[in-house]
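---------- Forwarded message ----------

FYI, see the ATP-dependent sacrificial sulfur transferase LarE record below. Original note from H. follows.
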Amino acid sequence: MGPSTTTTPGTDAEPIAGPDLFLDPDLAAKRDALLATIRGYGRVAVAYSGGVDSAVVARAAHEALGDAAVAVTAVSESLASGELEEAQALAGRIGIRHRVIRTEEFADPNYLRNNSDRCYFCKSELYGRLVGLMDRLEVDAIASGANLDDQGDHRPGMRAAGEKGVRHPLQECGLGKADVRALARAWGMPVWDKPAAPCLSSRIAYGEEVTPARVRMVDQAESWLRARGLRLLRVRYHKNDMARIEVAPEEFAKLLADPVRGELTAAFRGFGFKFVALDLEGFRSGSLNDLIPPEQLLKPRVAR
């Protein structure tokens, strides 16, 4: 499926504009470096999920390049409900051109096998499609939202980015997660404090096959929890259709009190889970990486 234009930002999608607020001199210097770096790419396509990192890169690209920048959102079974609509609305507020493409990582047996390098095959699919679309998109470079803090994590997708020549302007300009959130806040972006939202396949325990049915179970379960006011959460899929719920410890009582506990259990079983567990350690981003043997953990190289 080729790229398609999105043009419905929503009725309350006023443009993001005005002076940059709350910027200290160090962050202002990083902002200026970010704009200059992206300007040096020429025309650019931003791999844009709508999360805070890629949104800041999209905002910077639009400011630096105007119509020579385009944000591209990939859609597949691993995208959580509501994420595309939020990304579309935010792109409209930023004012950047926006395209939506379909990726087919679920057609790759290496991806479905769900070993610890699953993300490599996902990003290879995404960046490969973006490279193939560069002429149609009329761009000279592809930019990601990877920030400086991502260098210290298990990120097989960074290897795929390096192979495809993807640029990482936040890393190149020394912006970590805190810098990105501060810049997003200064720019008046509503996602400045949005929790990280990696793809649904990242909730499936390594070694358990990734299937559309399993990611749908996770999506339904997380949507159920969000509908009850929880924001920071994960539902992890483990062997034998077990759901392991991660929420902030202060939310435990809310889930364990009746009638919510019974309603939660019944709802999750309706989604296809046979067992439901609450992780007493609470929410931990990337907790499934604890299951990876140390020798398999990757220290990604930054593409320059």
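H. also flagged this: Residues 25-41 form the longest helix (17 residues).
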